[in-house]
Amino acid sequence: MGESKPLVNSWTEFGQLELVCVGSAEGMCYPDDRKPYRVIHISQDENLKQYLTTFIGPRPPKRIQQAQEQLQNLCSLLHGEQIEVKDVEEIDGDIQQMLKRKRCSVVDQQPTTSSDDKRIAKPSIDILRAPSGKRFDHVIRTPHFESHYQFGLTCPRDIIITIGNTIVEAPTACHSRYFESSYYRELIYPLWNSDPKMKWIQPPRPTVSESMFNDVNYWDKTTSEQFKRDFKTNGYKTNLNENEIAFDAADLMRMGKDIFYKKDVFANNQGLKWLRRTFSPEVRFHAVHFPTDGTPHIDVDLIPLRPPSSGSHGIVLINQLHPPLKAEMKLFTDNDWRPMFVPLPACMDTPPMALCSPSLNMNLLSLSEKCVVIEECEIPLYHFLEDELGFDVITCPLRVLNEFGGGIHCVTWDIRRNDSCKDYFPEQNYEEECKIDLDNYFETEEYSVKTEDTNRTEREHKLN
Fold it and tell me: In which pathway does it act (predicted)?
């Protein structure tokens, strides 16, 4: 008798997705404005900042309802098997702009009438929802800090990651998200009880005390522009020091045997060391740096779409607003991955209370090596993926979720994909890479369009 199929298995961002958790906006709050690292910046609007310096407490019920409707629509699209795409133009009430959209909906297996609208067929994906009925407007206390309002459960991707058959709860350095992963345990325990091969671990929980930060008043003294300049010139050091292990799950990007780790304000070098020691030798972890982006999470900077195959390059998307280091992209180009810059966002304006930058346009979810889900307003990205790269592109409205901290990748957590720990980067010297002193690391040359063109020419010469 053959072995039963595992419930927990996910090694990549692009294997066929079979089971996924989708977040919930219920009970969401604007968390406390804590000095070590402020998660909430009141607004991108400088005029509003003249009147308000912070915003804490329960979020408006109407906004929560709108967010829940968008999350439920995403669930329907993931679960559906026949998707129809229509052209729509609607006003975005948050920014008062008319935006063109590619709107998808679930339809019957067979169309009842002839239609010129595009149809996409895909397997149904099983859905788990983040626990409901939770509230985050109560005080939490540890020996090291207290927080009066917590974040919520909109973005499971930030807090939990599946690496193979192992679920990892991230050691976040954020006060308002300190116990967030524990809410998901009512989903994780049934998986644990049903899948005998599943593993479940958590790094040492950081104290998130003042000793973890170089200056608790840093964000009172520093503008975002000054932070960007300092991050690039001071060896990618941030206010988060190396006294304890810290990272968010969304600082990792999985590509089989190799996982890429973004150094930023929530992820330090101690976190990378813990991952390397814990998962070695089965998995290799690589540090990646984005000189103009020290903000949290890699899924607005680098997203793999599909791996190299016979007669086809692998494709990895990168953000032209925040390019990676040229030296670190060499691992990709040496292994037949083609870095491609994502089109600029369709709209650079965000809602007044958005926690995210416009770069969320590339915060997509891959359902397979041939099908992706993006935000419905991102028409340039839609045509890039469909017309130039040949993907089936499913869209969903999710701009309200920008206010709640994420895009389509952020609000999901892969639990099972049909993939394996395959080596997509055989050409490398990992032992030498691990000797690099990342505490004194001053590479600054960015990957550029010129670099991309040069690499393409070199590959073509090798083939000829």
Answer: Amine and polyamine biosynthesis; creatine biosynthesis; creatine from L-arginine and glycine: step 1/2
| CA separation for the pair 244, 269 (Å, rounded) | 9
| CA dist., res. 403 & res. 356, Å (int) | 7
Integer CA distances (angstroms), 24 to 21, 31, 182, 339, in order = 10, 16, 15, 33
d(CA 9, CA 102): 32
Q: Which residues contact 411 (CB under 8 A, 6 or more apart)?
A: 22, 23, 71, 74, 154, 155, 156, 157, 398, 401
* 190-215 confidence digits (pLDDT tens): 999 999 999 999 999 999 999 999 98
Enzyme catalytic residues: 248, 297, 410
Give the pLDDT confidence of 286-341 residue by residue, as tens digits: 999 999 999 999 999 999 999 999 889 999 999 999 999 999 999 999 999 999 99
Q: What are phi and psi of 408, to 5 degrees?
A: -65, -40
User: Tokens 């964000």 map to which residue?
Assistant: 219
Give the pairing of strands 16-22 and 126-129.
parallel
Q: Indicate if the pLDDT at residue 352 is higher than 80.
A: no
Measure the CA–CA gap between 84 and 81, rounded to whole angstroms. 10
Q: Are 326 and 448 in contact (CB under 8 A)?
A: yes
Whether pTM > 0.90 for this model: the answer is yes
- Strand 199-201 relative to strand 166-169, pairing: parallel
Instruction: Using alpha carbons, select from 447, 413, 341, 437 the residue that is nearest to residue 155.
Output: 413
